[in-house]
Structure of NAD(P)-dependent dehydrogenase, short-chain alcohol dehydrogenase family:
Amino acid sequence: MNILITGAGRGLGYELTSEALERGHAVVAGVRLPNETKLTALAEKYGERLSLVELDVTNEEGIAALAIQLKEKGVSLGAIINNAAILNSRNTQIEQLDFNDVALTMDINVYGPMRVVKHLLPLLTEKDAAIFNISSEAGSITHAYPGDYPYAISKTALNMFTQQLHVYLQKRGIQVLSIHPGWMRTDMGGEEASLDAKESARGIIGQLEQRRTPDSRFMFVDHEGNPMPI
Ligand code: NDP
């Protein structure tokens, strides 16, 4: 399978890339700065199975150009994993909220995956294709808490985008899931987190390989495939 992953240079994105390559898949790894990433070591190890591409999810022109470039090379995709995201205004209460932070979070965490799907969907032509949106339990309305407003709201909105895509793409046999990857030890999750990002990546790539039976319900699951509360 050829898997496009955004935010592939560190954290979960790096581990998803590494895990997919270890299992024999090909990866188009989207990073903001292709020359400044530890992915170059993986590129040496895996050769042509890893393509490093410049991909800033806020740059629609850049994503459109990437889609053309991949199409010209005859690339087809089996999966898109929308992983790139930020978490800012942590624990900030509504009275102190800075709307520049809210706008930036929405631009990256919600409009980012929308831009990526808008331009790269035509390349998603492999059999049993899938789109995995990396969401968060913070986006669960059932477990809403006051704080992390931009992040939580962005993940709830991402979940809506997942379901809209699911309805739109079901007839084409493209599976669309929102996945909570767990609380992971990454720059975002911090050192206290309970889960190794590698373990989460293993579960997520495993779900791509296993492929679920299509379901008309909204599919929000954790990295092991267990249902998450909406
Ligand atoms: P990190 O902060 O460790 O990494 C974030 C990644 O997103 C980096 O690769 C970063 O690239 C990339 N990124 C940020 N902005 C952009 C942009 N504009 N364009 C392209 N890439 C961008 O996060 P994690 O690895 O921890 O998180 C991965 C996913 O998992 C996210 O969707 C997050 O919301 C979700 N998640 C994480 C949890 C955790 O505990 N860590 C818990 C629940 C969900 P760069 O290096 O260029 O900055």
